[in-house]
Amino acid sequence: MNTLSSDKLLVSLFQIPEDYRAKLAEIAASSDAINKKTSINACIIEALEDYLKQSQDIQLKPTLPKVPLRAFTVRTTRDMKQKITHCAAAWQLQTSFPVSMNAVVNTAVLAFLQKNIQGYQPPF
């Protein structure tokens, strides 16, 4: 029997490039400087919320960068984790190729960085 409610946080381990993590840290630090307390985790959650609410027609196709990835712990709700899983499954059905939850997270973070850092392009 499942005793966790959807409002309790779960810990998930995702892998993101070091460049993404560094840029998220810069955004979190700059938001802290203007008295809007934000963490890297909050930036990732915001990125996922923005990405997952888009229709699949305008979402970037989930992909994993071809660079070394660093493990990062993300605290999220059961509902958010389920939405990530459903998004990955929908893309897998559309493309006929495996799409991981990690690819969805990385693509959401890339879209978030491009939205928040003018002209951002990953260095890889």
Describe the structure in your own words.
A two-stranded antiparallel ribbon has the order 1-2. Helix 1 packs across helix 2, helix 1 crosses helix 4 and helix 2 (40-53) crosses helix 4. With 124 residues, the chain is α+β, with helices and mostly antiparallel strands. Residues 1-6 have low confidence and may be disordered. It is built from 4 helices and 2 strands; from the N terminus they run βααβαα. The chain has helices spanning 18-33, 40-53, 78-95, 101-116; strands at 9-17, 69-77.
SSE inventory with pairings:
Blueprint: E1 9-17, H1 18-33, H2 40-53, E2 69-77, H3 78-95, H4 101-116
Antiparallel strand pairs: 1-2
Helix pairs in contact: 1-2, 1-4, 2-4, 3-4
The amount of beta strand, in percent, is 5-15%
Which sequence of SSEs, written as H and E, runs from N to C?
EHHEHH
Q: What is the molecular shape? A: globular
Helix tally equals 4
Mean pLDDT: 89
Task: Please report the total strand number as a whole number.
Answer: 2
Radius of gyration computed on alpha carbons: 15 Å
Record the strand order, biggest sheet.
Answer: 1-2
Largest sheet: 2 strands, antiparallel
Oligomer: single chain
Helix content: 40-55%
User: Which ranges are low-confidence, i.e. pLDDT below 50, for 5 or more consecutive residues?
Assistant: 1-6
SS content category: alpha+beta
Q: How far is the N terminus from the C terminus?
A: 44 Å
